[in-house]
C-alpha cells in the first residue's frame, strides 16, 4: 500500500520498528499494524468476518474502510491532510486461500500515550476542595511574611539570578568570660527525705542528739572500720538533705514574701496612703501655678534659705527673664495696636501701659485623652475645683469612641474619673440638686447619667431603651432649676436637651430615662423683601418640616423662657408653656448657630455665634442685631460671658481664642491667643471663682490661662 499526494509524491509512512528477516510475522498482523500506525485515537474492540470470493477486492475494501475511519480521527496528530491523499492499489503478490478469507480477524483499537508539551497548573483552588485549607494557611503565612518584611534585616530586596554580595565578618573584643563549675551530689533518698520533711513536722534537735548518742555508745567489734564508714556516709547524706531542705524553705519564703507584697499593694490603706502621697507631690510640683490660679502669692520655703544661693540666683534669673518678656510684649503690643480708649482715663504713655494678656499656667491632658477633640466643659456646682470634660468629634467622618473625664485641680496630670462611651461625647453638665450626677449627651442621640462618686464607670441610667430617644446628635444639654427661689428639698431640676432631629426634650429621671417634647423646631421661610413689579414666587417644598437644633439657653431670671439656635441660622425665643409656636424669631446669621448665651447681669441682652464667622449682640425686644463682631475668617465654635463683668466675653474660633471688652473696643478684641498650626480651638469656659479661662482644642488638651492686667469695670450693665 502506498500513499501519494496531489503532486504525485510518495508520502507513505515508514514503520519505526524493523523486524528481523528471519522472524515470522503473522498475516493478520499487517492489518492491525497498519491501523495502529495511522494513530487510532479511540479504544475499543472491532471484530468482523470477510466473505469474498475475490481476495484482491476484499483486501482493498478492508483497507479503504480502515483508512476512512483513521482519516477522521487523526487530523490533529499528523500534519498531512488525508482528505487530499490519493490511495493507489498495488498488486498483491501473495494469493489468499479460501481458508484465509474465511478466517476471523480481531483488530484492537487503543489510544496512544499522551505527550504533554505545555502544562500550566491552575492558580485558583475551589473552596470545597481538600487542598483549600492548606492553600489558605500558606496564603496567611505569606501575608504575615509581607507584613514583617519592612524594616527586617532578614529580608533583602534584589533581582533574581544575581550574585549575592560578599559576606562581612565583624569581630568585637570584650573581657574574658570566667566560667565556674559548681556541683553537688544528691541521691534519690535525699530527695525523698527532703520532700517528706516539708510535710512532716521535724523532730527537735534534742531528740536527734539522743539518737546519735545511743548509736555511738554501741560496743566496738571487729567491724569497727565498716561501722565508721557507714556513719560517715550517713553524715554526707544528711548534709545534702539539709542543703536541699534549705533551698526549698527559701523558695517557699520568696513565694510568701511575694504574696505578702501583693497583699500590701492591693490593700485599701496602702491605696489611700498612695493617694495622699500623690496629692502632696502634685501640690509641690504645681504650687506656683496653683497659687497663681487662686491669686495667692508664691511662697519660698524659709528652712532652706541658708543654703539656697543657687536657688535665689535661679529665682532672680527667672524674674529677669519674665521682666524681659514683659518688655518684649509691651513693644509688640505698641507696634501692633493700642486702642486709644485705653489711654482716655489715665495720663500714661504707651510705654507705661501694661497690655492685658493670657498667661498659660498648665493643661489637662494625658495619654488617654490625647487625640480626642474637646467638645464640651462644665464645672461642678458643689466643688469648684472639679471639672468635667467631654471628648468627641463634631464631624461625621471623624467619629470614634468618646470619653467623659473629671479633672481636679489637685492632680492636673491624670483625671479622677474616666467614663468610656461607645460614641463621641458632644455635651455634658453637672446637676445642682444632686452634685454627684453627671449627664452626658452623645453623637448617636443617646443620653446617659453617671455617678462621679462611684469608681464604677457604668452609667446609672441610659436612654437606649427609651422609645422617644433622639435620632440625631445631642448638641447641648443642661440641668435647669424649675424654681430658683426654693432651697433644700424644694429645689427641683429638669434635664433639657436639644438635638439635630429638631426636638427640644425634657428627660424624666425615674427607674429609667424617658422624655417629653418641649418644642419641635419647625422650619421657617426666610423673609425676603419684594421688589416693585416682582411677581410672587411659589414656595419650595421642604425636605424636612423640622429644623436641626444646635444650642439653647434659659433666661437667667425666668426659666420659663429660653432661646434656641438652629442650623438655618435663626434664633427662636420659646416658652415652656407653649410648644406650638415661637414667641420671637431673630434672623441675622447666614450659617448654623453654634451657641447662644444670655448676659448674666443685663438679662435683656444675649450673644450668639455662628459658622458665618460672626458674633452678634442682640436685645430681646429687637429683631435686628445691635452689634456684629467680625475679627477673623473662621468658624466661631463657642462663646461665654464673664461671670464678673457685663461687658467682657470670650470667644473660641478655629484659629485663636479672643477676649472682648466692650468698654474698651467694639472693633477689636483686647486679647488674642493663637492656636498651633495643626490645632483648632473648640470651646471656652471661665473659672467661677478666679480670673482664669479654660480653652479646649481639637487635640484633647484643655489649657488653663490666667487673665492678667484685665481691669473689669464696676458697672454691671451693658
Describe what this molecule looks like in 3D.
It is found in: Cytoplasm, Cytoskeleton, Flagellum axoneme; Dynein axonemal particle. The protein has about 725 residues and is α+β, with helices and mostly antiparallel strands. It has a domain at about 365-505: YVTN repeat-like/Quinoprotein amine dehydrogenase (Methylamine Dehydrogenase, Chain H, 7 Propeller), CATH 2.130.10.10. The protein is about 25% helix and about 25% strand. The strands form 9 sheets. The chain has a 4-stranded antiparallel β-sheet with strand order 5-32-31-30, covered by helices on one side. Helix 5 (about 190-200) packs across helix 7.
Structural class: alpha+beta
Q: Which topology of the domain at 365-506 does CATH recognise? A: Methylamine Dehydrogenase, Chain H
Low-confidence stretches: 24-56, 75-90, 202-237, 304-312, 332-347
Number of strands: 32
CATH structural architecture of the domain at 365-506: 7 Propeller
Protein topology:
Elements: E1 2-4, H1 28-37, E2 44-48, H2 55-73, E3 86-88, H3 98-102, E4 105-109, H4 132-148, H5 188-199, H6 205-216, H7 224-265, H8 268-285, H9 287-293, H10 309-336, E5 357-364, E6 374-379, E7 386-391, E8 402-408, E9 417-421, E10 425-430, E11 437-442, E12 447-451, E13 461-462, E14 474-481, E15 493-499, E16 503-509, E17 513-520, E18 549-554, E19 561-566, E20 570-575, E21 584-587, E22 593-598, E23 605-610, E24 615-619, E25 627-629, E26 636-641, E27 648-653, E28 656-661, E29 671-674, E30 681-686, E31 692-697, E32 702-708
Antiparallel strand pairs: 1-3, 2-4, 5-32, 6-7, 7-8, 8-9, 10-11, 11-12, 12-13, 14-15, 15-16, 16-17, 18-19, 19-20, 20-21, 22-23, 23-24, 24-25, 26-27, 27-28, 28-29, 30-31, 31-32
Helix pairs in contact: 5-7
Amino acid at each position: 500500500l502506498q500513499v501519494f499526494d496531489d503532486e504525485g509524491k510518495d508520502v507513505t509512512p515508514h514503520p519505526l520498528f524493523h523486524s528481523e528477516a528471519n522472524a515470522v510475522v503473522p498475516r493478520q498482523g499487517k492489518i492491525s499494524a497498519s491501523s495502529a500506525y495511522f494513530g487510532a485515537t479511540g479504544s475499543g474492540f472491532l471484530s468482523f468476518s470477510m466473505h469474498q470470493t475475490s481476495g484482491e477486492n476484499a483486501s482493498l475494501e478492508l483497507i479503504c474502510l480502515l483508512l476512512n475511519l483513521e482519516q477522521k480521527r487523526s487530523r490533529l496528530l499528523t500534519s498531512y491532510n488525508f482528505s487530499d491523499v490519493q490511495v493507489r492499489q498495488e498488486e498483491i503478490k501473495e494469493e489468499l486461500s479460501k481458508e484465509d478469507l474465511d478466517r476471523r480477524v480481531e483488530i484492537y483499537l487503543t489510544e496512544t500515550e499522551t505527550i504533554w508539551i505545555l502544562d500550566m497548573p491552575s492558580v485558583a483552588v475551589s473552596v470545597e476542595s481538600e487542598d483549600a485549607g492548606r492553600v489558605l494557611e500558606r496564603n496567611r503565612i505569606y501575608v504575615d511574611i509581607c507584613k514583617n518584611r519592612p524594616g527586617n534585616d532578614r529580608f533583602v530586596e534584589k533581582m533574581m539570578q544575581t550574585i549575592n554580595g560578599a559576606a562581612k565578618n565583624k569581630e568585637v573584643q570584650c573581657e574574658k568570660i570566667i566560667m565556674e563549675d559548681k556541683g553537688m551530689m544528691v541521691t534519690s533518698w535525699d530527695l525523698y527525705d527532703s520532700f517528706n520533711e516539708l510535710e512532716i513536722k521535724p523532730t527537735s534537735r534534742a531528740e536527734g542528739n539522743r539518737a546519735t548518742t545511743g548509736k555511738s555508745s554501741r560496743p566496738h567489734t571487729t567491724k569497727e572500720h565498716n561501722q565508721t564508714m557507714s556513719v560517715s556516709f550517713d553524715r554526707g547524706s544528711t548534709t545534702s538533705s539539709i542543703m536541699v531542705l534549705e533551698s526549698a524553705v527559701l523558695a517557699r519564703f520568696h513565694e510568701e514574701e511575694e504574696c505578702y507584697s501583693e497583699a500590701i499593694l492591693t490593700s485599701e490603706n496602702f491605696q489611700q496612703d498612695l493617694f495622699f502621697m500623690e496629692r502632696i507631690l502634685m501640690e509641690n510640683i504645681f504650687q506656683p501655678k496653683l497659687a497663681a490660679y487662686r491669686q495667692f502669692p508664691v511662697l519660698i520655703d524659709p528652712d532652706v534659705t541658708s543654703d539656697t544661693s543657687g536657688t535665689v540666683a535661679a529665682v532672680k534669673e527667672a524674674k529677669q527673664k519674665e521682666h524681659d518678656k514683659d518688655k518684649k510684649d509691651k513693644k509688640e503690643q505698641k507696634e501692633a495696636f493700642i486702642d486709644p480708649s485705653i489711654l482716655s482715663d489715665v495720663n500714661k504713655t504707651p510705654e507705661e501701659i501694661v497690655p492685658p494678656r493670657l498667661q498659660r499656667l498648665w493643661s489637662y491632658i494625658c495619654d488617654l485623652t490625647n487625640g480626642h477633640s474637646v467638645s464640651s466643659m462644665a464645672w461642678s456646682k458643689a466643688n469648684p475645683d472639679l471639672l468635667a470634660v467631654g471628648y468627641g468629634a463634631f464631624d461625621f467622618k471623624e467619629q470614634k469612641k468618646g470619653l467623659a473625664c473629671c479633672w481636679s485641680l489637685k492632680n492636673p496630670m491624670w483625671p479622677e474619673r474616666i467614663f468610656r462611651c461607645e460614641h463621641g461625647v458632644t455635651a455634658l453638665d453637672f446637676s445642682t440638686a444632686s452634685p454627684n450626677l453627671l449627664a452626658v449627651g452623645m453623637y448617636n442621640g443617646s443620653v446617659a447619667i453617671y455617678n462621679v462618686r462611684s469608681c464604677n464607670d457604668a452609667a446609672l441610667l441610659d436612654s437606649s431603651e427609651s422609645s422617644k430617644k433622639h435620632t440625631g446628635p445631642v448638641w447641648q444639654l443642661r440641668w435647669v432649676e424649675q424654681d430658683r427661689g426654693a432651697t433644700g428639698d424644694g429645689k427641683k431640676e429638669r434635664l433639657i436637651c436639644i438635638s439635630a432631629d429638631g426636638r427640644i426634650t425634657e428627660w424624666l429621671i425615674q427607674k429609667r430615662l424617658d422624655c417629653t417634647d418641649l418644642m419641635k423646631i419647625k422650619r421657617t421661610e426666610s423673609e425676603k423683601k419684594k421688589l416693585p413689579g416682582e411677581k410672587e414666587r411659589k414656595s419650595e417644598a421642604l425636605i424636612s418640616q423640622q429644623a436641626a437644633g444646635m444650642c439653647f439657653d434659659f433666661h437667667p431670671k425666668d426659666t420659663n423662657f429660653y432661646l434656641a439656635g438652629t442650623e438655618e441660622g435663626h434664633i427662636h425665643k420659646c416658652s415652656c408653656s407653649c410648644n406650638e409656636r415661637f414667641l420671637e424669631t431673630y434672623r441675622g446669621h447666614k450659617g448654623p448657630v453654634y451657641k447662644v448665651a444670655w448676659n448674666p447681669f443685663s438679662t435683656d441682652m444675649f450673644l450668639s455665634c455662628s459658622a458665618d464667622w460672626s458674633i452678634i449682640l442682640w436685645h430681646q425686644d429687637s429683631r435686628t442685631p445691635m452689634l456684629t463682631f467680625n475679627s477673623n475668617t473662621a468658624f466661631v465654635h463657642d462663646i461665654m460671658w464673664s461671670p464678673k463683668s457685663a461687658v467682657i466675653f470670650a470667644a473660641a474660633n478655629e484659629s485663636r481664642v479672643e477676649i472682648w471688652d466692650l468698654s474698651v473696643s467694639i472693633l477689636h478684641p483686647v486679647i488674642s491667643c493663637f492656636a498651633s498650626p495643626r490645632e483648632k480651638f473648640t470651646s471656652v469656659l471661665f473659672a467661677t471663682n478666679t480670673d482664669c479661662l479654660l480653652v479646649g482644642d481639637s487635640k484633647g488638651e484643655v489649657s488653663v490661662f490666667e487673665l492678667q492686667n484685665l481691669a473689669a469695670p464696676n458697672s454691671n450693665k451693658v
